[in-house]
Amino acid sequence: MSKGEETRQRIVAEAAKLFNQHGFEGGSMSELMEATGLEKGGIYRHFSSKEEVAAEAFDYAWQAALDARMHDLDLIPNRVDRLKQFVANFVERRSIVPGGCPLLNTAIDTDDGNPVLRERAKTALHGWRARLGSIISEGIERKEIRRRVDAKKLATLIISSLEGALMISRLERHNEALLVVQSHLETYLDMEARLRSK
Amino acid sequence: MSKGEETRQRIVAEAAKLFNQHGFEGGSMSELMEATGLEKGGIYRHFSSKEEVAAEAFDYAWQAALDARMHDLDLIPNRVDRLKQFVANFVERRSIVPGGCPLLNTAIDTDDGNPVLRERAKTALHGWRARLGSIISEGIERKEIRRRVDAKKLATLIISSLEGALMISRLERHNEALLVVQSHLETYLDMEARLRSK
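ok -> structure tokens follow
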């Protein structure tokens, strides 16, 4: 990696940390200058605008969140167990980027604002839902999940309940809500989604 | 109501509208001056600081959200049906204060920031959970809900899944996620919570 590319990456990583905690929309360039130790010109050599930094920082933070949530899922062949591990990862594994879920933060931050970031958040949501949906569809094909399960609806239910519980857990600084939702989803997956051999 | 009290109320109502859309932490006093048509001095005659306006505006917005969600619940005697109507209200009824859920907005806004607003959001969450919890406990006493249902856990599950679905629905500008969660909760309440006469 060239020195210029290295600096660019460092700016994105610092911006992700900063903006995921203080808002991708609300975070300021002066805070970013302080965090990176760069002058304004040093940042604008690599990015044309604050919006461009924020958009790349969002993608970086989102990738880090997905990496934590999808950690080692491929090692689990049964798709119901894989979904349960995904839920456990969401509850237990923290992203390397602090500040909570970038999707939740950015969706709330931008729902009456910045359309570029809003599009990034929508793309993130749809990609995530599609990945969970694939796991569910594969489970149906592999006869591990019942045919009547709707992949998109189940993925939506999992994402909704985990994201809402994360909001509560961060507000309470206690993971009780996440554990309540985890237990509910585990029971639901075992009782309503899992296809048992007769 | 005195003229002074009237002005104060109008500031709070306008601040609630403004800050619930653009952030209770991020909203600016100059935007509030524009929305109310008052000079800075006209606002500070009634409030000692922006934090005080924001805190009262949050309480106002939260009360409006609760009013919409709790609308006419007392008319429904059966507590399972009352919970189902609560879920339907959440999905269908909009608060008079635009900008989505004040609790969700403020929890995300302040989780790395403003401790006064954060406390207001925590109090709002705990009051809401306690009200749903009471409906559930009453349902157990009235033998409409099974004894093994944990009131706090069920209230947490309902709040988590609805708030997460609201985030998605606002991001997508489509209420599909809310409808998915509503249908899931209705089935769950009927099949797992409702006590049926033998």
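Chain A has a mean pLDDT of 95.
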